Amino acid sequence: MSAVPGLQADCEELLGAFQRADTVRFERFAELWRERRFHTVFYGRIRALERNKLTKKTLELAQQYFLPPYAFQIRVGALYLLYGLYNTQLCQPKQKIRIALKDWPEIQKFQQDLIDSQHYDAAYIFRALRLARAFHFTAMPKLLNYRTKKKIEENEFKEEFKDPSNRVNSLITNDVLEELMNIHDHYQKMKCVISADKSQPDKALSLIKDDFVVTLKDITLEHQEWQQNRMKLFLNAKEIDETENKKQEDTLLESEGSERANALARIKYRSYSAVAEASKSRRHRQVKLEHSEAGKSPSRSRKTSRRPQPARRDSPEVRGEMEVAKGTPIQHIGMPVITEENSDE
Amino acid sequence: SIDMLMSSDKEKDPDVISEDSSLLTLRIRKKALDRREETIIVDRACRQETLAYEMESHAIGKRPDSPTDLVEEGELLLTLNIFYPVIFQKHKDHKPYQTVLVLGTQKLTELRDSISCVSDLQIGGEFSNQPDQAPEHISKDLYKSAFFYFEGIFYNDKRYPECRDLSRTIIEWSESHDRGYGNLQSVKMEDYVFNDLSLKIGFPYLFCHQGNCEHIIIITDIRLIHHDDCLDRNLYPLLIKKHWLCTRKCFVCKMYTARWVTNRDSLAPEDPCFFCDVCFRMLHYDAEGNKVGEFLAYPYVDPGIFN
């Protein structure tokens, strides 16, 4: 289906503002909505047949933001957006929101999350939509049509809206750390038991770093912070990109570059200092920090989100510049690789 | 209430886009509207658009008179695109189709009966010598066989004794050599409802009738029935979209749809030439009904006859 021109930009702008507001309250969303007078998106002299089609496409676009992998806040924003669009549409009878069968369990889980975290306004809104019979339960999310498209349009979603894929965090969760701690304690106690001096493990038995669990936790926390910092930098870069002044952009790019370099330096410094001093018996195996190659950094394909800006013809070049500028520093962000064996025996 | 938060403070006319709109969508749309105002003299729905809209929405919300005809909750609604068999040059990019809504508990035969194809109405034979006897046997009555092909199974229409198993040829062909097709089976169409089938959405299936008139069928959507849909079982299969085909008009009066086509006609300026009934008789037969001139005449059914 050919998209409604400009609609994706408007929706993303509204959701972006909602994300920046950093809240999930409906009142806040309603304010943002009223600021933009979003209900006028259906205005314009449109006859009935086309109005139906237009509304269908609008609801379909908004519905995409409602599903994973988007961040929780974005999904709540999408729910509010759907509610607003459904109620302010001009079609009679109202066009419905299509939900695929496979997405339905996730949406129910989402609703359960809302209730558990006591976001009662969002849960109420969802319930209101269901009571108003606003949903079509379908097999497939997108309604097919059969015009051969001149080019396949890819839906580029904004990266910021997505939850950062946190592989490290999903591996080293709190539970895992707790268990590691327990095992570590147990291990220490065993060592004490079998060594001569009951209160302390034998020197010969100290084969691992005693506080490796704490170090692991610190490293994971750092990774998280680093990711958030990177996100913020990316967001800043995007915002800066949207200002009209090109010269300003150049200088800002440079200062961004230095900002990023500073951030990098800070992170590196902290990770350097986090290395524990090995005990004397293990000094020959002192930890050496190495720079990781670009390959080790979590590769996130930077899809340039195509922003429909018909008036600005210099945007592609600007974007190209941005890409290059971003490319080089980011390659050097790497996780410190600890060469020593961090084995658990 | 929650709804109050949505509506604007001042009542605005939905037809007018305000100048200071902050939405990109509206700015683009306003440009398009302004352009339309400059170029189009009279801006109103043409009859094709009115027809399309009517077809889409005429059945919405209908309720049956008797409660036995009410569609139950939990019923599935399938949307099928049935493509026309004609292949015109201008349809290269997208083939025209009609869209039909079908309930899950309906039999395949009901869908078969609802497909209106112009080849069903063809009348075979040359009738220049006896023009009054023409519309006697339309093909639909003569050749009743038909089959659907879904997912490797042929569903043949066996309701009438004249119906033959058209799919037998295909099954024999595929079994004769190792063609790479799995087991193709043949069953009776009237025993199956749509709920029994396993289908792929977007995958082309086939409907064949008259021995060689083939229509591609694609299922575009399956969803649960909704409160706002038409709940009268008798109206299904429901046609909601139809391609508008221009009818060929009579060569003489240019007003009526052509009903006859002549070949090798000494009286006609071109070969083949189309005539409506009145003009045909006036030109080719004299006052007593005798044939004038040499020609071959066939009854003609225009594809646009279902408009």
TrEMBL record, chain A:
InterPro entries: SNAPC1. GO terms for cellular component: snRNA-activating protein complex. Residues 311-324 have a biased composition (Basic and acidic residues). Pfam families: SNAPC1. GO terms for biological process: snRNA transcription by RNA polymerase II; snRNA transcription by RNA polymerase III. GO terms for molecular function: sequence-specific DNA binding. It comes from the Eukaryota. Residues 276-345 are annotated as: Disordered. Residues 299-310 have a biased composition (Basic residues). This is SNPC1 protein. The gene is Snapc1.
Automatic annotation (TrEMBL), chain B:
InterPro entries: snRNA-activating_su3. One of its GO terms (biological process) is snRNA transcription by RNA polymerase II. The keyword Nucleus applies. It is found in: Nucleus. It comes from the Eukaryota. Coiled coil: none annotated. Its main location: nucleus. Keywords: DNA-binding, Nucleus, Transcription, Transcription regulation. GO terms for molecular function: bent DNA binding; core promoter sequence-specific DNA binding; RNA polymerase II cis-regulatory region sequence-specific DNA binding; RNA polymerase III type 3 promoter sequence-specific DNA binding. One of its GO terms (cellular component) is snRNA-activating protein complex. Transmembrane segments: none annotated. The keyword Signal does not apply. Part of the SNAPc complex composed of 5 subunits: SNAPC1, SNAPC2, SNAPC3, SNAPC4 and SNAPC5. SNAPC3 interacts with SNAPC1. Belongs to the SNAPC3/SRD2 family. PANTHER family: SNRNA-ACTIVATING PROTEIN COMPLEX SUBUNIT 3. Part of the SNAPc complex required for the transcription of both RNA polymerase II and III small-nuclear RNA genes. Binds to the proximal sequence element (PSE), a non-TATA-box basal promoter element common to these 2 types of genes. Recruits TBP and BRF2 to the U6 snRNA TATA box. This is snRNA-activating protein complex subunit 3. It comes from Grallaria varia (variegated antpitta).
